[in-house]
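The following record pairs a protein chain with its ligand, zinc ion.
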Amino acid sequence: MKKIHVGLKKRGYDVVIGNGVVASMGRFLKKAGCEGSAIIITNPAIKRYWGIKVASVLKKSGIEASFLEIPDTEKSKSIATSLKLLNRLTLKAKSKKIFIVALGGGVVGDVAGFVASIYKRGVPYIQVPTTLLAQVDSAIGGKVAIDLKAGKNLAGAFYQPRLVLSDTAFLSTLPKRQILNGLSEIIKSAVIKDPALFKFIENNLKRILRLDKAATARIISRTSAIKARLVEKDEYDRLGIRIALNYGHTIGHAIEAASGFSKKYMHGEAISVGMTAANFIAVKLGLLSKAISRRITRLLENAGLPTKARGIDPKKVYAAHLHDKKFIGAKNRFVLISGIGRVTIEERIPAKLIKEAIAAVCAS
Ligand SMILES: NC(=O)c1ccc[n+]([C@@H]2O[C@H](COP(=O)([O-])OP(=O)(O)OC[C@H]3O[C@@H](n4cnc5c(N)ncnc54)[C@H](O)[C@@H]3O)[C@@H](O)[C@H]2O)c1
Ligand SMILES: [Zn+2]
């Protein structure tokens, strides 16, 4: 078992990672100061796989637990679902002390965290992430949000959980494509911050892909620590420190948008292509060597991630990338790398070069 502390003083918390850590939930909850009844927010699929186990662990620890379910779709990150949850919470909680358990992937985590942040002006909640992406990314850092018509994550808050419990056993029921979705973010973190992790993934890819316990726990721990350190330095994402996590995301998001956020490109897949495009730009600007760019592309491809977005209109990708939230007016901003572990923020990249990079990754 590995424990990473997110050092945010009063709002600090532990991220506990390992195979079977959920069995010790009662002990961690006590330490985290979560008291009263647990309301587990989850979706029907996750409840079927893991809900009963989590509820029984809680009951064994003397904690009363009940479920609130949301549909298994990104559409659940909505004001309508939040309102339903808030009303059902009121009925369940009555005058009892409660805390919320977000049991699921990023969708459950984001909406459950959002509801926890506003119910009675904030009740304690913990993240129990069940996807690889949620374990290394969305469960850590306190960004909770719902989507609006105009775009994703447009209404939300910074509201830190009291505890994150990342049980690697959950990954055993996760479809392969979802594993790769998370692995893409792990490779991203390694590229921006951790050459040793990058090398470890290169040398242990087969073990990682078959979810070897030790290898999986190691990459989750390292990536969680990278996120924790960035969050500590820039809790409210105002100092431009968390921006490094956006490597690969400018063109990546644009690919997701150009494909209409369909199932064609999952987030991690689009980011894999986005990293390749960012490296193309960095090489052309003379910041990055071709050899390192190739090494990253090779790792992504060996993992089974796409480095090209076939069948996507480059013009649509170009138009979509202009909405990147990092851009300031007409001035664009890209997170690039000059080596593994070396991030550089570059502004005013010529449109011609961006178009070239997009054409290179969209070519069939
Ligand atoms: N808050 C943040 O900082 C942050 C960061 C990154 C992403 N996000 C958000 O996270 C969301 C994506 O999260 P995600 O990739 O985890 O997707 P998800 O929550 O939709 O989960 C993916 C799928 O896997 C299923 N699933 C989850 N755990 C499972 C398990 N153990 N076994 C079998 N199936 C399981 C889910 O039911 C779902 O169908 C997006 O809404 C994104 O905006 C938030
Ligand atoms: Zn991402």
